[in-house]
Amino acid sequence: MRHNKKFNHLGRTKAHREAMLSNMATSLILHKRISTTLAKAKALRVYVEPIITRSKEDTSHSRRMVFAELQNKEAVKELFGEISTKVVNRPGGYTRILRTGYRLGDNAEMCMIELVDYNENMLGSDKKATATRRTRRSRKSTNAVNAEETETKA
Description:
The protein has 154 residues and is an alpha+beta fold. It contains five helices and three strands, in the order αβαααββα.
């Protein structure tokens, strides 16, 4: 019986699934965005978010725990260096899944999973686009406009 076993097995054995998720998490940490199927992205999100939460506290114990999951020194260094400083104030939700359509060969739903703090397009950028006022009227100086108004009134 499979009571309370809600995670997606992804059609793989336990060892294969753990190795695949570890490799995908390493790629996500190093590249900040990867393209995969929707089912794998949802499984990866459950796998990688606790790892990122653990990186907020930079201790030997947390580094060893993360290395035990990822098995990649460069990914651990990147996670505890650059990524942990960006997510230190975020209370969770470090990843975003963006659906990109369906794969041509088998019609699998594809998506991109990315780290939230690294997408400059979706971040609320500080500099707003300046609204330019466009008009068909010719630009006259305000003094000339005021002089014409007084002439028409008189």
